[in-house]
Amino acid sequence: MAKKGATVKVKMVSTAGTGYYYVTKVNKKTKTEKLVKKKFDPRAKHPETGKPGAHVDFKEDKVK
Question: Is the C-alpha dihedral spanning 44, 48, 51, 53 positive or negative?
Answer without folding.
Answer: negative
